[in-house]
Amino acid sequence: MPELLTTDRIEEIGALGVKSPDPAALVAELVSAVDEGRLADPDDIGYALLVAADILDQAGDLADALALATRAIAEQPDEDAYARAVRGGLLLRLGRSDEGMAELTELRPLLETNPNATYLVDELAEAGHADLALQWLTGALDTILERTRTQQHESEDAQDEAAAMIYGLAQRRHTLREEMGLPHDEYDNLADRLRAASTHALDALDDGPATLLYWPEAEFTALLARWPALVDSYPKTWDEHRTQIERALADAAGLGGADLGVVAGTVEGLAAFAGEEPVDEETLDEYADSLDEVGLTAWPPGRNDACWCGSGAKYKKCCRPRSRD
């Protein structure tokens, strides 16, 4: 029976990318697995095709990258927003400006409803349309702030969602303006105030401290094998564990959290810390505090930087999409 292509292998391929001696073979491995129905998780079809498209993009083969992004949209039309944004960016960089702009413009309303949709302006900026990206960010902020002023009786969940939107848009806009060498304006000042207020915002979080304890894959498996009583304290799989961490950090950022990060635990380190005492959630919290100043990985990484989870894949292709459910 042909070997199934796992999510971990897709991430490994994404991390290798054009650094591999044979990028074309990696693309072929991904595409053939999709063609032959050999994905361990059928929900990874779009992901596998987009990783292949990214490798081709990095190699300068924009036309074939576009074909794979287009196919990703057709294969998983119910979860196609990110793939369509990638497609729009590729069309712009291929000189097909009208088509690319039409694709991205149709997705533009997501900036007012989805805290993670700033990938739209990333595609615009990468294609040389930073001014338009800035205009879209400003317009989305205008709309959401006006909405919060006029809709005074929103539910608590709606208020939290609006806060996440405002924070994310203001920070991305602030970063873009800094990259463009523009002076501070009113919204830049808002971004600074939100970041400065992060300590107070984090006090309202139920998820715990700004620095979260994370277990790399091998350590996660060893942790639950050594202390079976912790099984109820963690998700069933390592993949779910890192997804939980990513979402908690994204929630913290949405509430204004800054200086966020993860510290990686080790079974050997926890055993030395706990000694003969039983290991429970309180012990885990104390162990995390002991690691706060050692081995801290700041969150979030840059979109094209290595992911914080240690997979070796780019953040934008690894854990970043996990908070977009």
Keywords:
single chain; 325 residues; mainly alpha; 15 helices; 58% helix
Question: What can you see in these coordinates?
Answer:
The longest helix has 24 residues. With 325 residues, the chain is mainly α. It has a three-stranded mixed beta sheet with strand order 1-2-3. About 4% of the residues have low confidence. It is built from 15 helices and three strands. Helix 4 packs antiparallel against helix 5 and helix 5 runs parallel beside helix 7. The protein has a domain of 89 residues.
What oligomeric state is this?
single chain
Let me know the largest β-sheet. Answer: 3 strands, mixed
Distance between the termini: 33 Å
Shape: globular
Brief digest:
The protein is mostly helical and 325 residues long.
Helix and strand arrangement:
Elements: H1 7-16, H2 23-35, H3 45-58, H4 62-75, H5 81-93, H6 97-107, H7 119-126, H8 130-150, H9 156-179, H10 186-196, H11 198-203, E1 211-214, H12 217-226, H13 238-254, E2 260-264, H14 267-274, H15 281-290, E3 296-299
Parallel strand pairs: 1-2
Antiparallel strand pairs: 2-3
Helix pairs in contact: 1-3, 2-3, 3-4, 4-5, 5-6, 5-7, 7-8, 8-9, 9-10
